[in-house]
Structure prediction request, 311 residues.
Amino acid sequence: MSRIVRVAGAQLGPIERDEPRSEVVGRLIALLEQAAAAGAELVVFPELALTTFFPRWYFESWDDVDQFFERSMPSADTQALFDEAARLEIGFALGYAELTNDGHRYNTTILVERDGSVVGRYRKVHVPGHEEHEPWRPFQHLERRYFEPGDRFDAWRAFGGVVGVATCNDRRWPETYREFGLQGCELLLIGYNTPIHYAPDPSQNRLAGFHNALVMQSGAYQNGMWVVGVAKGGVEAGVDSLAETSIIAPSGEIVARATTTGDEVIVADCDLDLCANYKQTLFDFDRYRRPEVYTRIANQRGAIAPGETRT
Ligand code: CDT
Prediction:
């Protein structure tokens, strides 16, 4: 039986701070319908797809922060998206800010199957940026103030294969892909919001697109998996963010890529059986990996140079 999953990346252009959730959900539904009309079975939306990228602002009051969070999923505003997806028998991954009943805040993505059932929720593990207001920056990146980190990478059986979800900064860390690779993951879905200006080292600005492609293509190839990277791009509240939504094959090749910085659907037929070409040859983990030699990977956080000690 063929295991070709037609996957759509639903890139979003900017969402301004005062754009109501209902209007954003209308945009998501339009993209979903476009993806379904193209025959897609799964549509991937970006990180924090329901609001503007609010960590760019410092808020004194948690009440101001919490307006960007969802207390349930589906929520009253997003129910229409869930209903339309179920009607069209198309699954989706949707990034949003999650506020739990016991007061925890996460940068979360929910994965929903074609029949409307919830496959799972992923909470971003690598939370970038800073905790305190840093007025020297042209804009803030306060994810570390507003989100706690998630604590697990779980792959799920869904869409006829093994599927994982990661979020934005996670894609820069090889550990992310390997954690999923070690679960036999065949399709990794990654939403992102990536400001092109990187205040701690602006020399990296011109390389934003290169680094985005570099990490996702390497992760795909080195783990024999499809990677779908989906942006919220364009100039949002005056901040230019990378677009370049891409679908990457287990060979590491980009097979579909957005050509705009706005709302746009890209589609590719992802043959999950292609993963075996890499997983069973060059990257046959069981045969070639040497976990007994990789002792530092799971036990040490920062680098320790020869001659240095850490207490
Ligand atoms: N959303 C997110 O994780 N963005 C980061 C920006 C760089 S860190 C300030 C990223 O890795 O794309």
Observations:
- The first strand starts at residue 4 and ends at 11.
- Residues 47, 128-129, 141, 168-169, 172, 192-194 surround 4-methylsulfanyl-2-ureido-butyric acid (CB under 6 Å).
